[in-house]
């Protein structure tokens, strides 16, 4: 089973790296925006995948581990969020750090609920 998680994690981490590269090319002004975007998108996709796995009766443990723990776990990142927070705080941007923390939580929760809601309509 560990190989399913490892393969998924490699795919998710590569996708996160790609998102960061695209953001740099697009000239996004702040590193934390990329982490926020990736985490919100990952939360949205987690809602969809979780409902899909349950509603479609996909009882395959390997597929579940591959998609949730592997791909989406590798794509989203709490450790980078923590590093972003530390950098913002150490640079004296406490207001931005608190806004980043609050928006990460609020948007992440909104995204997983939205993904779940959409998936429930797609996979009755």
From TrEMBL:
The chain crosses the membrane at residues 31-53, 65-83, 95-119. It is a multi-pass membrane protein. Na(+) is not transported, but it plays an essential structural role and its presence is essential for fluoride channel function. GO terms for biological process: cellular detoxification of fluoride. Na(+) binds at residues 73, 76. GO terms for molecular function: fluoride channel activity; metal ion binding. Keywords: Cell inner membrane, Cell membrane, Ion channel, Ion transport, Membrane, Metal-binding, Sodium, Transmembrane, Transmembrane helix, Transport. GO terms for cellular component: plasma membrane. Its main location: membrane. Belongs to the fluoride channel Fluc/FEX (TC 1.A.43) family. Fluoride-specific ion channel. Important for reducing fluoride concentration in the cell, thus reducing its toxicity. PANTHER family: FLUORIDE EXPORT PROTEIN 1-RELATED (PTHR28259). This is Fluoride-specific ion channel FluC. It comes from Pontivivens ytuae. The gene is crcB.
């Amino acid at each position: 089973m560990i190989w399913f998680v490892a393969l998924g994690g490699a795919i998710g981490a590569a996708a996160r790296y790609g998102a960061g590269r695209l953001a740099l090319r697009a000239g996004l002004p702040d590193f934390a925006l990329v982490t926020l975007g990736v985490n919100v998108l990952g939360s949205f996709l987690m809602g969809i995948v979780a409902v899909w796995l349950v509603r479609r009766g996909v009882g395959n443990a390997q597929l579940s581990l591959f998609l949730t723990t592997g791909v989406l776990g590798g794509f989203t990142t709490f450790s980078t969020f923590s590093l972003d927070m530390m950098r913002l705080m150490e640079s004296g941007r406490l207001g931005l750090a608190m806004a980043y923390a609050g928006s990460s939580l609020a948007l992440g929760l909104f995204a997983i609920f939205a993904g779940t809601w959409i998936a429930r309509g797609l996979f009755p």
